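Human: Note token order:
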Amino acid sequence: MDTIANAQNAKIVLDIIEQIHANAAYLSEIDGATGDGDHGVNMNKGFLMAKERIEESMMFSDALKILGRTLVMDIGGSMGPIYGTMFSKLSKALKVDEIDANTFLAGLENATQALMELAGAQLGDKTLVDTIHPAKEAFKSALEAGKSFKDCLQAMSDGAETGKENTRNMVAKIGRAARLGERSKGFLDAGATSCCIILKTMAASMMAQF
């Protein structure tokens, strides 16, 4: 079966939390170039709070729900609601016994749409949308080409990396970095970078199960 079990698979979320923790200083360094330099600190705080509430024996979808709820309820600023919404949308779509590629794509599409609406961001605005949208499209294209779930996840990972790197060439349209105008060009977007870490880690953790 070309599926991922939902039951007892919270490890995927715990792997994501570990990578955000490992990259906290890097994320704040990136944020410091165009923002207020606290993205990594806030991400790390919220994700570690969620870790305290997640057990490996939990369902993948439940762990996503806990992470999303923790970010919304316990972390301020814009990051909490934005990532909280992303994980909540994924959680709702993945509440099935066995997660296949079509189910996962539906979750990605719901999360991407919700993020664009919540943040008021479009492609090219230099936000995390510039990571998740191309990642989702790469997954979708691979699926439509008849690729396996594992290959679709690899395509998503590659799409996320490409999308994140492309933010270097963009001028920020919204958020704190938008105040810099053309001077925001030449730097990675912190949200796009953290989103890339999340999607690539999720993909790797899921691919390891095939």
About this structure: Strands lie at 4-5, 98-99. The longest strand covers residues 4-5. The longest helix spans residues 101-119.
